[in-house]
Design brief:
By secondary structure, the protein is an alpha+beta fold. It has one domain. Helix content is about 15%, strand content about 25%. Strands 2, 3, 4, 5, 7, 8, 9 and 10 form an 8-stranded mixed beta sheet that branches. Strands 1-6 form a two-stranded antiparallel sheet. The protein is globular. The N and C termini lie far apart (about 85 Å).
Length: about 190
C-alpha cells in the first residue's frame, strides 16, 4: 500500500532558468517587427511567457522536425505534453535580454529516475497556439532532480531558439486571392 502511494506521487523537478548556468542560450526574435531587429533578444516585461513540454524518457528520436519552430510541440510526436498546474511550470521572462529565471521549480509528474525529453516554448499571448508570436527549442534531454536534491537548470542543456511572427489566417487568404488575381490577369493578357 505504501509503495502505491509513493509511486502515485512520484515527481521530479527542473529549473526554468537559462541565465544562471552556462551556456545560457538566449530566446531571440527570429525576424524584425516584433519589438526588435532580426536576432534581437526577447526583452523583459514585454508580455512573454516561458513554459515547457515534456515526456518521460528519451523520445527525441520520435519528435518530428519542425523547421519553422512555431508548431505546437504536442503535435510533433514523442508524447510531449504541456506542463501545467504546478509552481514554476510557466514563468514570465524576468531576467531580460533573452534570459529567464523562474520563481519556482517546474514539476515533472510521474518521474522517478532517468532522463526526460523537454522542449522549451516562448509565446506572447494567452496560450501557445493563439499567440501572434511564438517559438520553441529543439527537443533535448535532461535528468530532473528528486526531493532534497539541487534542481538542475535547463540552461545547461537547452539549445537557444527564436520566436517568430505567426501570420493570421486572413493574411494567407489575402495572399491566395492576390496570387489568383495575378494568374487570372496573366492568362487574360496571353489570350
Amino acid at each position: 500500500m505504501a509503495l502505491a502511494a509513493t509511486s502515485a506521487h512520484a515527481q521530479g523537478k527542473i529549473a526554468l532558468d537559462n541565465y544562471s548556468v552556462p551556456p545560457a542560450n538566449q530566446v531571440l526574435y527570429g525576424q524584425a517587427g516584433l519589438g526588435g531587429a532580426a536576432g534581437s533578444p526577447v526583452l523583459n516585461n514585454s508580455g512573454w511567457t516561458i513554459g515547457f513540454y515534456y515526456a518521460l524518457g528519451d523520445v527525441t528520436a520520435n519528435v518530428a522536425g519542425d523547421p519553422s519552430h512555431v508548431a505546437d510541440p504536442g503535435t510533433l510526436g514523442g508524447g510531449l505534453a504541456f506542463a501545467t498546474g504546478a509552481p514554476g511550470d510557466l514563468t514570465a521572462i524576468n531576467a531580460g535580454n533573452g534570459y529567464f529565471v523562474a520563481t519556482g521549480d517546474g514539476v515533472i509528474n510521474g518521474w522517478t529516475s532517468g532522463s526526460i525529453t523537454v522542449e522549451i516554448v516562448a509565446y506572447n499571448g494567452g496560450d501557445y497556439n493563439s499567440s501572434p508570436a511564438r517559438g520553441h527549442s529543439s527537443a533535448f534531454t535532461m535528468t530532473p532532480a528528486g526531493t532534497g536534491t539541487p534542481t538542475p537548470a535547463v540552461a545547461s542543456v537547452m539549445p537557444g531558439f527564436s520566436v517568430f511572427s505567426v501570420p493570421e489566417p486572413s493574411t494567407f487568404a489575402l495572399a491566395g486571392l492576390g496570387a489568383a488575381a495575378l494568374l487570372a490577369f496573366r492568362r487574360k493578357k496571353q489570350a
